[in-house]
Design brief:
Blueprint (H helix, E strand, L loop, with lengths): L1 E8 L5 H16 L4 E8 L6 E8 L2 H8 L2 H10 L8 E5 L4
Antiparallel strand pairs: 1-3, 1-4, 2-3
Protein name: Antibiotic biosynthesis monooxygenase
InterPro entries: ABM_dom, Dimeric_a/b-barrel
GO molecular function: monooxygenase activity
Length: about 100
C-alpha cells in the first residue's frame, strides 16, 4: 500500500468553489483501479490549504491513474482553483 499526500493551496476566496469542484469530479478518482481510499481535508488555521490523502494498492496504480483520461477529468475540476501546483509525496507504512 502507498499513501499519496498532496498539499493543495487554493486561490484565496475560491475555497467553496474548490470543494464543489472536488465533489463533482471525485468519482473520476474513486473509480480508478487500485484506489483503496480517499480523503480530502480542509485547513483550519490555513483556510486556503487542503490536504488530499489517497491510499493506492501500489505506486504503479497511482501512475496508471495519472496516465488515464480520468486524471484529466480530475484535474479539470480542481486545477483551476490552485494557487500553485500541489506538493505531492508518497509514503509507505512502517512495520
Amino acid at each position: 500500500m502507498v499513501l499519496e499526500v498532496a498539499l493543495i493551496d487554493v486561490k484565496p476566496g475560491s475555497e467553496a468553489d474548490f470543494e464543489t469542484g472536488y465533489r463533482s469530479v471525485r468519482a473520476a478518482l474513486t473509480d480508478s483501479p487500485g484506489l483503496l481510499s480517499v480523503r480530502m481535508t480542509h485547513g483550519v488555521e490555513s483556510p486556503t490549504r487542503f490536504v488530499l490523502l489517497v491510499e493506492w494498492s501500489s505506486l504503479d496504480a497511482h501512475q496508471a491513474f495519472r496516465d488515464s483520461d480520468r486524471f484529466a477529468i480530475w484535474r479539470g475540476g480542481i486545477g483551476p482553483h490552485f494557487a500553485e501546483p500541489p506538493h505531492v509525496e508518497h509514503f509507505s507504512d512502517v512495520d
